[in-house]
Design a protein that fits this description.
The complex is a heterodimer of chains A (426) and B (225). Chain A is α/β, with parallel strands linked by helices and 426 residues long. Chain A has 13 helices and 14 strands. Chain A has 3 domains: 30 residues; 306 residues, Alkaline Phosphatase, subunit A, CATH 3.40.720; 51 residues. Chain B folds into 2 domains: 77 residues, no CATH class; 130 residues, no CATH class. Chain B contains 7 helices and no strands. Classes of the chains: A alpha/beta (426), B mainly alpha (225).
Amino acid sequence: MRIHDPKLSRRGLLKALAAAGGATAGARILGPFVPEARAAVETPHFVHIFFNGGLNALFAGCADKYLTAGTFGVTGTNVKRLGTSDVYTDATTFGTFPQFALDHWAGIGVKHGNALHTTPQNLSSGGEQAFIRDGGNCYLTQLAYYMGGDSAFKAVYFGDRPPAYQAQPAFQGVPIQRIVSLSDAIKAAGSDTPDPNAPNRALAAASIETAEEMSKREITTNPGRLTPLTDAYDSAAASLKKPAPKPVTLAELNTAYGLNGKTGTDSYASLLAGAELMIRAAGTNVINITDFGLASWDFHQTGTGGSLNGSYSRQKMLGTGIFAGAANRIAPIRTFLSRMLDTPDRNVVVCVSGELVRLPSGDHGDGTVAVLLGKNVKQGLSFPVTNQSRFAASTPGVKPFWAAVAAALKVPGQPFGANPHSALTG
Amino acid sequence: MKHCQHTSLLATALALGACLTACAEDPDALTGRKNAPGSDTPGANPDDPNAAPAALECTVKPEGRSYVLFDGTKLEASRANENVGVNRARLKPYAVLQGEYQRVLGLVPASLATSAGSFDAAPARWFEEAQHSGVSLNAIFDISFEGCLSYTKTAPEFAAAPTAESAATVCGTLMRKAWSRTASPDELTSCTTLATTKLAAEPDARRRWTYVCSSILSSSQFLTF
């Protein structure tokens, strides 16, 4: 299956690339809108953990809404109230997150108005596309740009396909790149144990820059597939020019996340380990982690008690029941949160979401409730769903959600406009 | 009857011969790839040997039939339409790199065998063209560096540090071999500048050549078909 947008003509693409190139060049000439140096003391990082197909709002903090009717199998004994707040989540899954995460948990309602899945056949629509695309731009690369800093890998993604199933556009020269190997990522960031036979970092940078020079003509005449190579050359050389960061070893990550010595990114635990690696070794701003498979959290099944979405989701999160033998998703997320959320010199904000909430029938809602976790996040709910998983008409849309993320990250200014969730973020 | 068959064979042979002769005189004549990437005569424009190929622009109205699809749209509406010889480069998948290193260096870097995870290989039952990130490009450089270390280890031409003359010779030869085409003057200058100036801090002559070799094997011309 080839991922492409049939409505985008080659000529259109070339025009878009030319326009993007011009805009980028212009931005560089005029100077970047956001300075390289960060105003914030703590370095911000954003990690989006995405359950494609939909995350039931019961996990995101709205479990109490389903108590009375027992919707999604919610009972008085399998929910957990966070402190004295109005946040109720599933006890055996999200309820086992570290206390710091539970204390800094905001459930943010996002009414994007699209109850479809984004799929390779539906690239220009669907909840995932609505959640991460801002017209011709991508919120992930926009956020990475506005966060500033000097990381050579400002935005990356893990998983078996790009966010929303298609290559996402760079924003002001900030691309989002796929990471497929933890060992390569450590080497590229220069955080591995020095090898006397390995190339000198500065000379390797000069050699890669020369490779880019030599490739210029080829890339210029083949923009269709080779334009991203320019970003790749730039990132690789920029990373090599930086002083080596504090060591992050594969052995350490292997022990923490239980990777069984594997360095690929084909296990769920490896995705979370990769997120930690890219933050610590490369200083990456934005990391997207999408679970494997096509709409793999889309549980429509029903039983005698109604929708089985809640129980199937629990089982998949824990690798139990019909998902016995599958990877436990909660354990590595918990590990990541334990190790990274309260790091002294960093401001790590984590979003756990799907693109859709589930209706009591098990069908799709037209928005999502996203869990935001972070130092600057207060416990509570902002525009939650009703007991029918419906959003109030006043529920803000997508851009205000990203405004809340930016606020939690302490991004200067309001690049995504006003933040209607400011009571909990910012 | 037999005479007639011989006459036909002779005529066919003559026609093929004429065609082959035409191809031999100008390898790009039949494909229209003159001055295109991959052409053996880069910058065929005599006034500017570094000139890029013709702009990506449709200059002749395409001929052909129009087909209406079930939804009323036209099949040809989304057809890519641009000049021959441009926008045709495709990144080589991991599966072919072993042969490519063997072809250029005469050896395969040992680490390549365990580097499948470094490349953007498509998952099972999925088709996706290869693409590179900064991380995977760095991995390619490292793999190439390992291969080039062996490649430059004993050959006498790599015993002395690069000079302008030796760099031009080595760069030109290796680029021709790796890219299957002759480098343009600008491309050659980039390579010789690397060898003679940018790598001056490397005291070991063979390692200096190794960087040059690795740079060429990290260029898009080697990484694409």
